[in-house]
User: What shape does this take?
Amino acid sequence: MMTMNRRALLGALGACALAQPAAAQADYPNRPIRIIVPLPPGSPPDVLARVVGERLQHEWKQPVVVENRPGATGMIGLDAVAKAPPDGYTVGIMFLTHTVLPALFGRTPYDTQRDLAPLANLAWLYNVLVVPAGSPVRSVRDLVQRAGAQPDALTYGSGGIGSPAHLLGAAFCQTTGTRMLHVPFKGPSESVQGLLGGQVDAMFATTSVAVPMVRGGKLRPLAVTSPARLAALPEVPTIAESGITGFGIREWEGIVAPAGLPAALVDRWSRTLARIMTQQEVKDRLLDLGMTAAEPDTPAAFGTLIGSELDYWSKLVKSAGLKAQ
Assistant: This one.
């Protein structure tokens, strides 16, 4: 009977342990993949996840399950991503709001930079500054003048504290040196209804929501947050064209994984997502949904974007005195 000394046995076991992860990566993916969305079905991050998930299934020949984990302004879903095994089978959608939450709430159940691995920024989203169709406010200049003359008399709505509409409104007030009262609703749909019902004076609404209502005569557009005019609203000026400088905010949505994901899998995800986001069919579908596919970039570049956003919003939260409650 052949025997093996202790040193040789430990060496063989070590080699086996090293070989197993490498083999698992070479065989990746060999089971369903989960994309966690921190918002309810039908929200922009959910729609983006489903568009990308559909293409991932085609690319990798494995089921892709979109799992909605709403709650706590998106923290519940992202916490689930951060605490998942870093094996490439669980990723999540991260968006602008997540870079504001640490400063707004003081703490989150995860560390945004330490516990998450950026894979790719996927899309940019633009908003339209709108007022009810019957509002006396007819331009951005008019809104700023009225808000400047009567601090806190005008109101702006949002889908909740820390939501993109809230952040855009706060940044707009900060940039223009005005004060408008923020009125948070329970969600984006409720905030739009509040605007239509005259409960608030203005709001930053996503293009997918604003464009149909503008065309239907229910809302009046004042400006768009995009760098150039939108094809869907060619007569509506940009914020910059309206005379407001220094307001370069745009929403973004990307994919992150748990920290510790092996570099080979980070690279595989990055390359696959870049290939998906350059497909014309995907670009067209996102454009129809009010999104613009982001140009493919490196995970490091996405990490830099997240870091710069954390820094920007931390300063704005302090200077504007934003509070979670």
